[in-house]
């Protein structure tokens, strides 16, 4: 087995996945990227300034996971030190606006994709244990339910639960499980409409709600710290940290604030 550590990142074509790839590449890690966007992965790989691996696949396809990780470990000398279970899709707007297709896609990518990835990655993480880890990209929407994003919030609460369950389940294997819980991050996803019926983009809704947008580099640094630290969930950005504090110490006030902000985020 090679001495060079390796990380495999889903959703590596852009945004948080690309930033994590760049952060670990700077530390000399071999980086693997998985995504449905081959062109985006090529751009990420080009920005890494070194050797990397790309594999186009859909995280909703369980068999494709086995193919992707087998191909990656073949070129990483069998190593998988960190698996960044990062791929996800947004969905906003009131539940009445969301189509069946949008709901099913969000549930399938954000929940099934994470579970399938964890299941497929464990045998490879075991070979690199102790010290190997799975990092899951959760969200501030998994701290307290976000108005205008009920489906997305449900998936991120689910991801939080998966993190906590597998942290216990994999402890006997010396495989760490961690999550990062970012708030609104400055990535291209913010420039998309929250759903097919919306006329504006997510970025404008965030601004209307008076919330800050966190630089993506901050998430990448948090990812590095998470897999090298002991904290189970790492909150990233002021909104996530404030939500975590309020959910624990001021739940009644948080509920009132959530209702007041429902117009801006859920219209």
Q: Which features characterize this protein?
A:
267 residues, alpha/beta, Rossmann fold, seven-stranded parallel beta sheet, 50% helix, NAD(P)-bd_dom_sf, oxidoreductase activity, SDR family oxidoreductase, SDR_fam, oxidoreductase
What would you say about this model in short?
The protein has 267 residues and is α/β, with parallel strands linked by helices. It has ten helices and seven strands. It has helices spanning 15-26, 38-48, 62-75, 100-128, 150-169, 202-208, 216-228, 238-249, 251-260, 262-266, and strands at 6-10, 30-35, 52-56, 82-85, 133-137, 176-182, 233-236.
Terminal CA distance reads: 53 Å
Q: Enumerate how many helices there are, as a single number.
A: 10
Radius of gyration: 18 Å
Structural class: alpha/beta
CATH architecture: 3-Layer(aba) Sandwich
Number of strands: 7
Shape: globular
Pfam families: adh_short
InterPro entries: NAD(P)-bd_dom_sf, SDR_fam
GO molecular function: oxidoreductase activity
Family: Belongs to the short-chain dehydrogenases/reductases (SDR) family.
């Amino acid at each position: 087995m090679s001495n060079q550590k390796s990380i495999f990142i889903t959703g590596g074509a852009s945004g948080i996945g690309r930033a994590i790839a760049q952060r670990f590449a700077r530390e000399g890690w071999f980086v693997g990227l998985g995504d449905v966007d081959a062109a985006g992965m090529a751009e990420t790989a080009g920005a890494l300034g070194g050797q990397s691996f790309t594999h186009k696949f859909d995280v909703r396809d369980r068999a494709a996971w086995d193919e992707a990780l087998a191909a990656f470990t073949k070129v990483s000398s069998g190593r998988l030190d960190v698996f960044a279970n990062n791929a996800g899709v947004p969905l906003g707007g009131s539940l009445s606006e969301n189509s069946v297709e949008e709901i099913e896609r969000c549930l399938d990518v954000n929940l099934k994709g994470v579970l399938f990835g964890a299941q497929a990655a464990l045998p490879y993480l075991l070979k690199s244990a102790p010290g190997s880890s799975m990092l899951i990209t959760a969200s501030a929407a998994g701290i307290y339910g976000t108005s205008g994003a009920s489906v997305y919030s449900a998936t991120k609460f689910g991801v939080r639960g998966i993190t906590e369950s597998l942290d216990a389940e994999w402890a006997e294997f010396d495989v760490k499980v961690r999550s990062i819980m970012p708030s609104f991050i400055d990535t291209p996803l913010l420039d998309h409409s929250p759903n097919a019926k919306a006329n504006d983009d997510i970025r404008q809704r965030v601004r209307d709600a008076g919330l800050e947008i966190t630089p993506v580099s901050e998430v990448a640094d948090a990812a590095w710290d998470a897999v090298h630290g002991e904290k189970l969930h790492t909150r990233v950005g002021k909104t996530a940290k404030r939500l975590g504090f309020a959910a624990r110490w001021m739940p009644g006030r948080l509920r009132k604030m959530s209702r007041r902000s429902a117009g801006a985020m859920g219209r």
